[in-house]
Every structure is written in C-alpha cells, then in structure tokens.
Design goal:
single chain, Hypothetical protein yqbg
Length: about 180
C-alpha cells in the first residue's frame, strides 16, 4: 500500500509569466501577481487531472512492501532512490544497479534487476522511494491546456458550470493516468 507522498514544490512553472501574458494579450504589470497565481493553480489542476507531475519536482513516497513497486503512484519519473530498514534495524539504500525503473507509457514500476531480488526488510517498517518526477520538457499540448485554463480563470473570475468534454480535456487525454 502506498501512502500519500511528500512533494517538494516545483522550482519553476512549465508556463512562464511572459507566455501567459502573451496568451492573454495583457501588456501591463498590474495583474502579474494574479496571473502567476492563476498559472500555479492551472498547473496544480492539470497535475491532479492527469495524475502526473507536469513540472520537475521531488517526491518522497512510502509503501509497506516491495510488491507495491509493481504500480508506482507517480509519473513520469527520471530517477529513483530506494531506502528501507533491514531485519537488523539498520537503514539501507538499494544500489541503483540492483533495480530497474520501468515506464510503460505513464504506468511506472520498479523491478529487481536481472539476477537480483528484493532484500528482507524489518517487519512493520516502510520502504521510502525518493524520485525526481515530471517532464524534462513540457509537451506543447500540456502547455496549451494550461494556457486555456489560465485564460478562462483570468476572464471569468467566478465559478462556472462544467461544460462537459472540452478542448482542455482533449489536449490532456493522452497524458492522463488511469489509477
């Protein structure tokens, strides 16, 4: 079982203030703080909607068993470190040569390397996976969806009814994970 991850905030957004203002046709600085907040909200929404990390960030997730590695709850991942407590109660880190990070589309798993097996861990202890998650370069479709969300939120600053399947949905459908 995976527990809710601890996420280190992204250091930059996939859509810059300049890109957002260009898309909005805003040529003044009066709303810069508002637009930056809307961009951050749009990225958060896209990440929740797709169940993926859009911008690079560090994720620390804990699970009960190495069997949980068949379905890692974050994607896409670029690097992983695995720590656990061995049967003697000592903290251990598994060498990266002893496992493989497998990404089949947006479904991620971690498997023992050929000829290796998972070590025994202390009963009741959790395995800690620290990973770099997110796209190194954000897809134009994802950026466009973020800009659509930003434009809608900037133009209509109050809540509105969901209109069903939209361009936003269409742009993100190939980046959405089924959990």
């Amino acid at each position: 079982m995976w527990y809710p991850p601890k996420v280190t905030a992204r250091t930059s957004e996939p859509v810059s203030l300049v890109e957002a203002k260009r898309h909005l046709n805003v040529f003044h600085e009066d709303d810069d703080t508002l637009i930056e907040a809307i961009v951050a909200s749009a990225v958060d929404h896209v990440e929740k909607y797709t169940a993926t990390a859009v911008a690079m960030q560090t994720i620390e997730a804990k699970c009960d068993s190495f069997a949980d590695f068949a379905h890692v709850p974050a994607a896409p991942l670029t690097s992983v470190a695995i720590a656990y407590v061995d049967t003697d109660g000592a903290s251990q880190t598994i060498a990266s040569a002893d496992y493989e990070l497998r990404a089949d589309g947006l479904q991620v798993s971690i498997m023992p390397a050929y000829g290796k097996q998972w070590p025994a861990k202390r009963l009741g202890s959790r395995i800690i996976v620290t990973a770099q998650a997110g796209y190194e370069e954000t897809s134009p479709a994802i950026k466009h969806a973020i800009l659509l969300w930003v434009a809608d939120a900037y133009e209509r600053r109050e809540n509105s009814a969901d209109e069903g399947f939209s361009a936003f949905d269409a742009l993100l459908c190939n980046f959405r994970r089924n959990l």
